[in-house]
Amino acid sequence: MVVLEGFHAVKHALRFGAEVRSVLVLDRDAALGFARTHAPDLVGEFERRAEVVGAGEFVERVGRSHPTGVAGFAERPAGGGEARRAPLVLLDNPRNLGNFGAVIRVAAGLGAGGVVSLGDVDPWHPNVLRGSAGLHFALPVRRLAGLDEVTGRVVAFDAGGVGLRGLEIPDDAVLAFGSERHGLSDAVRARADLVVSLPMRPKVSSYNLTTSVAMALYHWELFRQAS
Predict the structure, then answer these.
(1) 8 A C-beta contact, residue 112 and residue 217
(2) What is the 3-state secondary structure (H, E, C) of the chain?
(3) How far apart are CA 205 and CA 130, in angstroms?
(4) Pairing state between β 70-74 and 2-5
(5) Among candidate residues 2, 16, 53, the one with its CA nearest the CA of residue 31
(6) How far apart are CA 144 and CA 175, in angstroms?
(7) I need a surface site. Which of 6, 83, 137, 152 has the fewest CB within 10 A?
(8) pLDDT digit string (tens) for the chain, length 227 residues
C-alpha cells in the first residue's frame, strides 16, 4: 500500500486505474470543489470515496498534513515485463528522490514506455511518489535487479557522446541517464549501444536530470510525429 499525498496524487491515481482503497478529506465540500475545477471527470469518484476525518487523524494516518486536505491509499501495482511501443527511461543509481519523482512525471507526460532504475533507491519511496504527483500509476515504474534485465537498444546520455541532433531514437530504445553527481556507471556505459549528448551552450556544464530526460523524450516525440 502506498500513500497518495494531496488532491493531485489521488486524482492521477484514479485516472490511471490504481486500486485506490480510501480517500481521506478534511473538508468534503472543499475536496469536491477541487474536483469540479481540476478534475470534473472524477467528481463522482470523489463524492463516492471521500471519507471526512479530523486534522489529527489525517496526520496520524497519512504521516503529515497537506495543503489540499486530501490524501489516499492505493495498492502498489505488480511490476512486469510489459511490451512497449515507446522508449523506456533507465535511471542509473539515482540519488535525489525529488528528481526521481519529477522524472516519472515528465515520462508520463511525454508517453514514455516506463521508468526503471538501478541501485538501492525504491522507486516507490514516499518522496519519489510526492515528486511524481501520483503519476507512478500512468506507466510501469520499477527497480531492476541488474543490467541483465535490460533489453533493447540502449542509448546513454553523456556530455562526451555524439550530438543528439539529427539522430532518431527508436520506439523500443532504452534511454539511460546517470546519477546527478557521478553520471553513468562504467557498467551502463559499457552496455550502451550509443552514447549521445544533449545540445548545450558552451560554458554550461550540465542540465538537471529531469530536464535531460524531458529533452530526450521530446526529441523522440518530434521525430515520431514527423515520420
Answers:
(1) yes
(2) CEEEECHHHHHHHHHCCCCEEEEEECCHHHHHHHHHHHCHHHHHHHHHHEEECCHHHHHHHHCCCCCCCEEEEECCCCCCCCCCCCCEEEEECCCCHHHHHHHHHHHHHCCCCEEEEECCCCCCCHHHHHHHCCHHHHCCEEECCCHHHCCCCEEEEEEEEEECCCCCCCCCCEEEECECCCECCHHHHHHCCEEEECCCCCCCCCCCHHHHHHHHHHHHHHHHHHC
(3) 28
(4) antiparallel
(5) 53
(6) 14
(7) 83
(8) 999 999 999 999 999 999 999 999 999 999 999 999 999 999 999 999 999 999 999 999 999 999 999 999 999 988 665 667 899 999 999 999 999 999 999 999 999 999 999 999 999 999 999 999 999 999 999 999 999 999 889 999 998 889 998 888 999 999 999 987 778 999 999 999 999 999 989 888 888 999 999 999 999 998 876 66
Q: Show the cell assigned to 145.
A: 535487479
Amino acid at site 118: L
| Type of residue at 53 | V
Q: Which amino acid is at 137?
A: F
